[in-house]
Design goal:
CATH class of one domain: Alpha Beta
Shape: globular
Distance between the termini: 32 Å
Oligomer: single chain
Order of helices and strands: EHEEHEHHEHEHEEHEEEEEHEEEEHEEEH
Helix content: 25-40%
CATH topology of one domain: D-Amino Acid Oxidase, Chain A, domain 2
CATH superfamily of one domain: D-Amino Acid Oxidase, subunit A, domain 2
Number of helices: 10
Strand content: 15-25%
Bound molecules: flavin-adenine dinucleotide
């Protein structure tokens, strides 16, 4: 039996492990933490084929610059004399074009739809209950500019084969009678779904912990990668060397540092986001998640509560909570949902995580190029939960040398080498 070593036990590493184990590999997952928290826990839980436009898109640069002068804004790049950030910014600028969006939209739609199908299959095959609900998500908007933008996106989505329906405010209110809405309109992406990420992570870790041929090493940071003759032969922590036939880098926002150990460049920046939970009031029951478009805030019902999440602070990894940005999330909610008035949470109740944000808004999925037995699976930014099953399946296919289920060219890890 061949052995694969996976660096990183976030949702991407775990789904890679799931599919590799299913196809007969012996699997070792190594994580620097204890797997009780990473970016894959506190996210908004949305499965989003609707997100077919990559983050690097026309208008994002101008919008980003405007937001940088507002301490409560949903997007912020911390200016720093840092060559990594500078290189990332230049690549982002180059990628934010219509041509790039047109080239990426089909592939993002294909991988998201594949992933959604795999989530359904995974739930059936494993019997893990992770609160999967297939009711779509609502894009809510308040300004005329956003009406036009979202209408145009919904038309594009329909052309890509996605099920998107434009709704008037009244049509939208009828879907959830207890939820007041102060909006100009909405788009209901029936193709989307949502789940409770914490339950998914715990369930998947338990499944893998109990699976024969899978071993998880916790609190084990990989600090060395040893290549020989065009292949990786081992990876090491301070105390242990792990040998294998194949290796996967799935280290989320830490992936550039891990890749550097093998002399590889995987440009991405950590994009910090926050979330917090508030118990659902059943007299105003919300069953469909919403994205508050202008505010870029996600509101998701899960596990009897509502999770509010948002902001993207691009900068170094740190554990500082920026209360102004959390207040930005809190204050935006009643503007769209007047009978939802979350209070500013205490710092201890605020979760934060680091999205692995590639400069062109596309994930890196595939073989590293330089080493024939090293795969990269990272850079999923805002859609890592959504794309995790498909990423795992594709990584399994490339390591087995079988024909991938879909064309993965735009996701090539070597595209910035
Ligand atoms: C506020 C917020 C809301 C979000 N909402 C959504 C959503 O609704 N839908 C969606 O699809 N996505 C969403 N996301 C994005 C999603 O959460 C991420 O894309 C995804 O979790 C990334 O998973 P990952 O496995 O790549 O990284 P992680 O979950 O961060 O896992 C990486 C792991 O690698 C380990 N590691 C790092 N370095 C080493 C090393 N040297 N040795 C060993 N281990 C190492 C880390 O300890 C970590 O456990 C959201 C993110 C945020 C912040």
């Amino acid at each position: 039996m061949s052995k694969v070593i996976i660096i990183g036990g976030g949702i991407i590493g775990l789904f890679s492990a799931y599919y590799l184990h299913k196809s007969g590999w012996e699997v070792e997952i190594i994580d620097q933490g204890d797997l009780s928290d990473n970016c894959s826990y506190g996210n908004a839980g949305m499965i989003t084929p609707s997100h077919f436009v990559p983050l690097a898109a026309p208008g994002m640069v101008e919008q980003g610059i405007r937001w940088m002068f507002n301490s409560k804004s949903p997007f912020y790049v911390k200016p720093a004399f840092n060559t990594e950030l500078f290189g990332w910014g230049l690549k982002f600028l180059k990628s934010a074009t219509k041509k790039h969006v047109d080239k990426s939209a089909g592939a993002l739609t294909d991988i998201s739809m594949l992933s959604k199908t795999l989530f359904m299959e995974f739930e059936k095959d494993t019997d893990i209950d992770f609160g999967l609900v297939d009711k779509g998500i609502l894009m809510l908007f308040k300004t005329q500019r956003m009406v036009e933008e979202e209408q145009h996106l919904a038309e594009q989505a329909t052309m890509l084969g996605l099920d998107a329906q434009y709704l008037s405010p009244d049509e939208c209110r009828k879907l959830q009678p207890g939820v007041e809405m102060d909006i100009l309109g909405a788009v209901h992406y029936h193709c989307d779904a949502h789940l409770y990420p914490n339950k998914l992570m715990v369930g998947l870790i338990k499944y893998l912990d109990n699976a024969e041929g899978v071993r998880i090493y916790r609190n084990t940071e990989i600090t060395k990668i040893t290549p020989n003759d065009g292949k990786i032969i081992s990876v090491s922590s301070a105390n242990k060397e792990f040998t294998g036939d194949a290796f996967v880098i799935a280290g989320g926002a830490w992936s550039p540092g891990i890749a550097r150990l093998a002399d590889l460049k995987v440009p991405l920046m950590p994009g910090k986001g926050y979330s917090f939970m508030v118990k659902q009031d059943t007299s105003k029951l919300m069953t469909i998640p919403s994205i508050l478009c202008e505010a870029r805030v996600a509101v998701t019902p899960m596990n009897g509560s509502i999770r509010y999440g948002g902001t993207m602070e691009v900068g170094k990894i740190n554990d500082k909570v920026n209360m102004n940005r959390v207040k930005g999330i809190v204050e935006s909610v009643p503007k769209y949902l007047p009978n939802f008035k979350p209070e500013v949470p205490q710092q201890k109740d605020i979760w934060f995580g680091f999205r692995p944000v590639s400069p062109d808004g596309l994930p890196y999925i595939g073989l590293s190029g330089k080493y024939k037995n090293l795969a990269i699976a990272t850079g999923h930014a805002m859609i890592g939960l959504s794309l995790a099953p498909a990423t795992g399946k594709l990584i399994n296919e490339v390591l087995n040398g079988t024909q991938p289920t879909m064309n993965m060219e735009v996701f090539s890890p070597g595209r910035f080498q």
